[in-house]
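Notes from the 1:1 (GR / supervisor)

We went over the backlog. Supervisor wanted to see one worked example end to end before approving the batch request, so GR pasted a single chain during the call. The sequence is below; no edits were made to it. Supervisor asked that the structure be written out right there so they could see what the output format looks like.
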Amino acid sequence: MQSVTETKAHPACPAPFNLAAHVLAQARARPDHIALQIMRANGAERWSYGRLEAAVRGVATGFLQAGLRPGDRVMLRLGNGVAFPLAFLGAVTAGLVPVPTAAGLTAGEVTRLCATIRPALIVACAGVSLPEMPPCPVLPDADLRAFETLSPADYVMGAPDRLAYIVFTSGTSGTPRAVAHAHRAVWARGMMVAGWTGIGPEDRLMHAGALNWTYTLGTGLFDPWSAGATALIPAEGVAAEMLPLLAKRFDATIFAAVPGVYRKILKSGQPLNLPRLRHGLSAGEKLPPGMRAAWRAATGTDLHEAMGMSECSTFLSSSPARPAPDGATGYAQPGRQIAVLGEDGAPVPRGTTGILAVHRSDPGLFLGTLNGDTIDTLKGDWFETGDMVVMAEDGAVTTLGRTDDMINAGGFRVSPVEIEAAMNTHAGITASAAVELQIRADTSVIALFYTGEAREDVLSPHAETCLSRYKQPRLYLRRSEIPVTPNGKINRRALREEWKETQ
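Structure output shown during the call:
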């Protein structure tokens, strides 16, 4: 059997359509229900659906009164406060194109992003870096909040395939790329309900990530609101160690985070008292072996992993309805068609390693990459994700790492994730990253960067017990921390560059 899924297509997105109108539709059905709580140790800021929609449409009016026109791009330089969703959805309501950016970017980085998207407005909170010479007006978030009480703008309706928002992703090159998404992207998220989140109108979903990341924006806000549920978001500065207490205090029924946050929460090894929790969700990076079992032991609930990317959000996952076998990421979500492709671009037999791909007909797939005023659209039938995977006979997919991170060891392709999983079982390692380092022009070796108290003389024998000879690290490099990207993924490129600079 070939590594390709055949599935019933997701219902077509209705037309005309507006992403913000879809996300906020529950404001008419249950205007007094709490849509959002920004959580702090001493309380929370509460927003009902009715108040949220009125504020979003007021912000849309403010944008239009400021002279913006449909199609203009609005860069968001905002933290984890309500100004972020108000600005994002207000822009979409008015037919503008929001561009969220990570709050921690430097002035130089923001300047380069501005050159790519050419914004007509930047919305910014205090303390974030701005372009060295802003190419457009800068609106403080306090002034944005003043728009909330303006008369509500009408939703700008149109074709589901038209441009709705832009996000930046580094991809495999390390150079940020502007990924263009259509309004229909939020409609496609309906496939995640049965395939991953299992969310319903009475749920209270708590997401630990930053709002300017698409994982948090989608899973933390859009999914709860589309279902009529409540979104729980930690305020700026809330430490990971505080999250279980907040989850209990605010009656979280679903918890979502990246593996790194789960690692911090589970570090103590103690049970977590979360009486209303139904399950946890993990995405952003491969879930390390053992973490799912540790979560089950600590909470009595399951942890469901999803795989996705900025170009398509999540598309394969474990779910309450169909849990993944231990060690596997999950199954294609209902309505998705995915495949594992060989070097010739054709699906490989099940059980064979290849590149994971999503069919171009997927309604959640991006429009293409921004190139000046045009969008470079997709070519061919499949969008290759760059992830090496293997599909089992029952369709369960196990991820092996990014193609650019794969290690060539003695002529064999080795997943760094496999090496890290084996080495992390040593009690003296708290985190690790396996990287291929070129030590001479014709010689490269596997290096293990790690944090913890272990010494090389104990790690080498440990590797011999759990890894084949060609997979065993030849260098052990202890660090105070393992660098991660803004999305919480191991930054192996940064480790390679750091090592080169010391040679």
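Supervisor's comment: The mean pLDDT is 92.
Batch request approved.
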